[in-house]
Amino acid sequence: MYNVAIIGAGPAGIFSALEIVKLKPDWKVILIEKGQKIEKRKCPIREGSPKCVNCKRCGLLCGWGGAGAFSDGKLTLTPDVGGHLVDYMPREKVEQLIKYADDMYLEHGATDEVFGTDMETFREIERQAVLAELKLVHSPVRHLGTERSLDVLKHMQDFLDERITILNNVRAESLIVECEQVKGIVLDNGDTIKAEYTIIAPGREGADWLTHEFAKNKIGMVNNAVDVGVRVELPAPVFAPLTDKLYESKLVYHSPTFGDEVRTFCMNPNGEVVQENYNGIATVNGHSYANIKTNNTNFALLVSKKFTEPFKEPIAYGSLANMLAGGILVQRFGDLLEGRRSTPDRIKSSIITPTLTCATPGDLSLVIPYRQMKSIIEMLFALDKIAPGTASRYTLLYGIEVKFYSARVKLTNELETEGVKNLFTIGDGAGVTRGLIQASASGVYVAQTICARG
Fold first, then answer.
1. d(CA 138, CA 444)
2. Does domain 2-112+140-223+407-453 have CATH number 3.50.50.60?
3. What is the pLDDT of residue 211?
4. Helices 370-386 and 119-131 sit at what angle, rounded to 10 degrees?
């Protein structure tokens, strides 16, 4: 019998475990992760494979550290982006939790440097953004880089390995709920884990499992906004006036045609575009490193829209892209505007060399609905006003980029599920957060809540 069982070793689950160990060192805690330990995680593409081989459990998404392990480790130190924690508690509390979680990263080896703290520089870029009808969100960023991020996560893993039980390569199959109270978890190997408290932190990759499991147990869910878009890749000098000063620019735009919100996300100066595999569905993402630089910068443009029937989940978009391309599509912006597909020869003749070499040249307008595509095009022209060259005919667009937090669990202000006692749900997979630092903060908060009860 465990005091606490945690599903998922992403930042939310890890920080829950770290805080419980600190507050209740004598408690028995088990952390269940369906992927590998951090040192055993790998991706065939990163090791030279020309294309995604559809691993049973994607090494970029599953394993210790979650989907963020191989990201460039950006900790956005503000409640204004990266999640919805302010919906559950006062803003001041969220700020305290973010600071607390950030200090924990520093304790485990994070770098000291924080970008975006020069307010005079921010105000000048903000002025330029306003003239282009863009909103620049103040978002100081601690950047680890992929290499340092892995080192930090390895340090956390080794620290916890001596203090709690960690199960790798084992998946939570179902919850045990009796008399409106969680009692434990059944694993895919048939074992049963009994625990007084259960924390579910499945990450985006586990969002589909969470949705179906909660529906089975009649735990309330509400539709979240769906984020669908593309990853933009362009020469690093185009965005250098912004990235050199802020590192990541959080820019929000409301498209004039439809009024939909479009935002930049996960900006990677001198980074690379990568492919991920969500249960057989190929999606695109981006990384940057602390010590390795490319000639390109990439970032996502995501259109947020809350759908009703029949589009309740973003997985349908990813499935459509796979049917058409068998993977990731890439298209030059000029070809998109001219209504023609990009070809290998057109990509080769561009001034930009794609960093994702396995992407298939094609036509994104066949994959992304007109409304979203129109909003993305309008956003690119708006960005061109503050970063000339963004709307170049050579700018590359990769698709499809989808964020798999399609539903949000109905939770109390303590992040406990409504109707099932002692069951807590946190992180990106629950639709509560959408970034590393708020996911980590949610883990800290739930751990403190549970320990206060005990």
1. 24
2. yes
3. 83
4. 120
